């Protein structure tokens, strides 16, 4: 069985509140040996840390752009305190999930940009890579990275242009691909996943979000009583098979390469995962 790393999973989400341990066990049984659990607000820091320690996984600490409206003025100071407190914790692998979101309406762009830049500074201060939220925001994210360089990381759920992808790669980033590439209509994303160098790709589920096509239910189906399938990290091998088929490579080769890529993106994973 291939061994997989899910580089982006929100196991602390409310959807897993009643069965997080069972979900983790199911993923392990499916060959997903390691999860990276990014926080989305400071209040989630202890939850992701506790889950990572309980299951031998890893975590990241950060303030997600969608949570900047409710973030307190002192949350950046609290985040810095947490990063300092846990700086020697081998389970802590990145600052994240941070970034910019220009898809969701009503968000304050300046406030998002302020939190993003400040968290890049924290990544520099604590010598950690970053896990980036990229949604209609690739160019301003790249601008920030050029002005506040960090050691690299992962551009999560990447869906930009080939030129933007190459720009992230040039700055030391790997690009995260997950359930979205399983949709046949996702032509641009599938081209990216096929044409980019294989050493630039990492795999992720974003569970419970970003469900693959076999879990998705349309609004009409949901109105008729069909339940929306819950995405879990156990779906990663099946998502990986779609990518392997698109690229025409053996699944075991993809597992080895994306494992290596994840360790390059998040160096603290070294020694914490098996090949």
Overview of this structure, please?
This protein is of the alpha/beta class and 275 residues long. The protein has one domain: TIM Barrel (Alpha-Beta Barrel). Helix content is 40%, strand content 15%. It has ten helices and eight strands. It is globular, with a radius of gyration of 17 Å. The relative contact order is 0.16. The mean pLDDT is 96.
List the helices and strands and how they pair.
Blueprint: E1 4-6, H1 20-29, E2 32-38, H2 45-55, E3 58-61, H3 75-85, E4 92-101, H4 109-125, E5 130-135, H5 138-147, E6 153-156, H6 162-170, E7 173-177, H7 187-195, E8 201-203, H8 219-223, H9 236-247, H10 251-265
Parallel strand pairs: 1-2, 2-3, 3-4, 4-5, 5-6, 6-7, 7-8
Per DSSP, the total helix count is 10
**Strand order of the main beta sheet, please?**
1-2-3-4-5-6-7-8
Assigned CATH superfamily: Metal-dependent hydrolases
Number of strands: 8
Percentage of residues in DSSP E strands:
15-25%
* Mean pLDDT score: 96
Unreliable spans: none
Question: What's the oligomerization state?
Answer: single chain
By CATH reckoning, the class would read: Alpha Beta
Taken together, the total number of domains comes to 1
Helicity, as a percent range = 25-40%
């Amino acid at each position: 069985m291939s061994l997989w790393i899910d580089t982006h999973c929100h196991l602390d989400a409310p959807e897993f509140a009643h069965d997080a341990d069972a979900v983790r066990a199911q993923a392990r049984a499916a060959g997903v040996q390691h999860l990276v659990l990014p926080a989305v607000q400071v209040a989630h820091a202890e939850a992701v840390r506790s889950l990572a320690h309980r299951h031998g996984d890893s975590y990241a600490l950060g303030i997600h752009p969608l949570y900047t409206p409710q973030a307190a003025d002192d949350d950046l100071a609290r985040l810095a305190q947490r990063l300092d407190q846990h700086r020697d914790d081998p389970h802590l692998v990145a600052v994240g999930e941070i970034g910019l979101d220009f898809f969701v309406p009503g968000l304050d762009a300046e406030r998002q940009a302020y939190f993003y830049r400040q968290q890049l500074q924290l990544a520099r201060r604590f010598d950690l890579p970053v896990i980036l939220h990229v949604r209609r925001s690739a160019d301003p994210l790249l601008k920030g990275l050029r002005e506040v360089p960090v050691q690299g990381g992962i551009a999560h759920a990447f869906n930009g242009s080939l030129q933007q992808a190459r720009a992230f790669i040039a700055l030391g980033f790997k690009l995260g691909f997950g359930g979205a590439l399983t949709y046949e209509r996702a032509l641009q994303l599938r081209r990216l996943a096929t044409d980019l160098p294989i050493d630039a790709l990492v795999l992720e589920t974003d569970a419970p979000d970003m469900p693959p096509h076999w879990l998705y239910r349309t609004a009409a189906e949901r109105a008729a009583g069909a339940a929306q399938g819950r995405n879990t990290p156990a779906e990663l091998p099946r998502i990986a098979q779609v990518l392997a088929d698109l690229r025409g490579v053996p699944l075991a080769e993809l597992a080895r390469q994306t494992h290596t890529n994840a360790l390059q993106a998040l160096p603290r994973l070294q020694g914490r995962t098996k090949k």
